[in-house]
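ARCHIVE CARD
CATEGORY: sequence design from structure
SOURCE FIELD: tokenized fold
FIELD CONTENT:
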């Protein structure tokens, strides 16, 4: 038996039109699963879904959704059920980080947006998919956190707070859902070469610091996060819940 086989599983991956989310979605399809590609803009989602379907016919659909609107997220979840009949895996990958710098310089609107997108919207999504998972006694929820949630930061203050909240959310929900065999875990990436993190790795000083503090001496590539997601989404991690897997090239150590 292949513990990593995702055949028959349906996964929603937010923020999957690019970067880490896209890499996770592609890996799920490669392992036999069906996947929903979703982010704010439909066009890029359709391109990713088309690329996946060219390789695995019928494995992907594209649905736009916004972390700002509960109704938008519910419509995306409804579209998923209409297309595939169920949801086995939820990967909360989409997030916002509108501010770099000391916390004293963040505007109230930026502060609120970061909290709403990175914590409240994840909560909404979980409440939309958990009931069917619990009724079925099967499901995996994955929150994409960050090593920013594990240590202090002078430039990512509020973002780091929300990523620490993701880790705690996984712990809390693991306690709530465990009796129903629904598992909730988090992944904490280090610096990865994505558009989302471009402000960090395009800065030569910050890149130099990140590379210097990593055991592997480099930053990550999006596909290097996909393996951890497949592990958590599949039966390979059937006895694991409430945990955070750090995938950072050895920075935190």
């Amino acid at each position: 038996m292949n513990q990593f086989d995702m055949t028959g599983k349906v996964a929603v991956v937010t923020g999957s039109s690019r970067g880490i989310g896209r890499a996770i979605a592609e890996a799920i399809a490669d392992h036999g699963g069906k996947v929903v590609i979703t982010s704010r803009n439909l066009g890029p989602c359709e391109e990713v879904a088309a690329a996946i379907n060219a390789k695995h016919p019928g494995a992907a659909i594209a649905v736009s959704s916004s972390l700002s609107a509960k109704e938008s997220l519910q419509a995306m979840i409804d579209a998923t059920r209409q297309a595939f009949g169920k949801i086995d895996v939820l990967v909360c990958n989409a997030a916002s980080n509108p501010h770099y710098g000391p916390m004293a310089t963040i505007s109230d609107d930026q502060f609120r947006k970061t909290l709403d997108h990175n914590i409240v919207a994840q909560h909404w999504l979980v409440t939309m998919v958990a009931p069917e998972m619990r009724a079925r006694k099967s499901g995996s929820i994955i929150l994409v956190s960050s090593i920013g949630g594990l240590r202090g930061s002078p430039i990512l203050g509020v973002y780091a707070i929300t990523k620490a909240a993701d880790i705690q959310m996984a712990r809390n929900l693991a306690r709530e859902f465990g009796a129903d065999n629904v598992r909730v875990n988090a992944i904490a990436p280090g610096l990865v070469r994505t558009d989302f993190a471009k402000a960090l790795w395009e800065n030569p000083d910050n890149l130099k610091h990140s590379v210097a503090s990593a055991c592997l001496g480099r930053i990550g590539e999006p596909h290097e996060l996909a393996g951890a997601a497949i592990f958590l989404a599949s039966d390979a991690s059937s006895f694991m819940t409430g945990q955070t897997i750090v995938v950072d090239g050895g920075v935190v150590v």
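CARD ANNOTATION: Residues 10-247 form a domain with the Rossmann fold fold (CATH 3.40.50.720). Residues 108-136 form the longest helix (29 residues).
SHELF: design records, drawer C
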